[in-house]
Write a structure and sequence with these properties.
By secondary structure, this protein is of the alpha/beta class. The chain has seven helices and 15 strands. Helices cover 23% and strands 29% of the residues. Strand 4, helix 6 and strand 5 form a beta-alpha-beta unit.
């Protein structure tokens, strides 16, 4: 059963705790890539952001009625990618279990362009079909059982129109960083933030422990994740009727093929961890009843 670890405390300080996630150098390459897959005709993110305004104020779009130019984000959160993607002319709908994160999204300019459904993205269905479904920042690991992760792939496939694509950004598990006989390794060591990953190898689970210091006080946060291997993701795609198309080590035109040693952690995070050079992959939508899986993790129809 899905668990919501993004409560009001985390949601209200999310951007303060992980400001690097919102830097243009991180956001723009991802938005450019996703907009291209969704079929946006707008220009690059950098040129679009300055001219974008809050726009009209209807109550927000409903789910897309056709696949072209429409994107579905699993774990939309505060709208870090959904908002700039919507400014590129892509009709974006998001699914998220955290009402506190959605409240942060709704408070931002342009939020009326993004439709939102509260629910578990592994199983929640929305109306319409999409050219693109995407899941970033390791959010697949928020699903803490293999069955839930498989259902996530099936849910993505069910929402994709012909030629659609499912994109996942997720880190390569870092068990190789563990010293022999140990189950914990640090991923963030700064004066303001300590982060440690605690592994249960038999259960394929990792608990991220965070300790922040500010104003003489310590804030503690822990979250459980099911780490997943690239080959396992490919098999999940096959179970959902998809096939791997391509896998890259990151976003942008300069991205390179993913390799096991290419992943490095930057700063740490809560359930959605920030990774530099996280492998990205994409899956294409159903064609004659089949769906293709491409990697960044990218999947294309076959």
């Amino acid at each position: 059963m899905a668990q919501n670890t993004f409560d009001a405390r985390i949601a209200e300080t999310y951007e303060e705790k992980w400001p690097e996630l919102f830097e243009p150098a991180v956001v723009d390459p991802a938005v450019d890539f996703l907009a291209g897959l969704a079929g946006s005709d707008a220009g690059p993110s950098g040129s679009d952001a300055a001219s974008s305004g809050p726009g009209p104020a209807p109550s927000g779009p409903g789910p897309a009625s056709s696949g072209s130019g429409a994107a579905l984000e699993f774990g939309v959160g505060t709208g870090r990618l959904a908002l700039p993607l919507s400014r590129r002319g892509v009709r974006v709908h998001g699914i998220d279990l955290s009402t506190a994160m959605i409240a942060q999204l709704r408070a931002k300019p342009g939020a009326e362009r993004v439709g939102v459904t509260v629910g578990d993205f592994a199983t929640t269905r929305v109306d319409g079909t999409f050219a693109l479904a995407y899941l970033v920042r390791n959010t697949i690991t928020n699903l803490t059982t293999q069955d839930e992760q498989v259902e996530c792939f099936r849910n993505a496939a069910a929402h994709l129109g012909p030629g659609g694509c499912f994109v996942i950004e997720v880190y390569v598990p870092e068990l190789r960083r563990l010293p022999p006989g140990q189950t914990v390794h640090p991923f963030a060591v700064t004066p303001a933030h300590l982060g440690f990953e605690e592994y249960d190898v038999a259960a394929q689970l990792a608990v991220s422990h965070h300790y922040w210091t500010a104003g003489g006080q310590v804030e503690i946060y822990s979250s459980t994740h099911r780490y997943v291997w690239p080959a396992e993701l490919d098999l999940m795609a096959r179970l959902a009727g998809m096939a791997l198309h391509e896998r890259w080590a990151g976003w942008g035109a300069s991205r390179s093929p993913a390799r096991a040693g290419a992943t490095s952690r930057s700063g740490g995070s809560p359930p959605r961890k920030v990774q530099q050079c996280s492998p990205v992959a994409c899956c294409r939508g159903r064609v004659s009843g089949r769906v293709g899986w491409d990697t960044l993790h990218t999947g294309r129809s076959v």
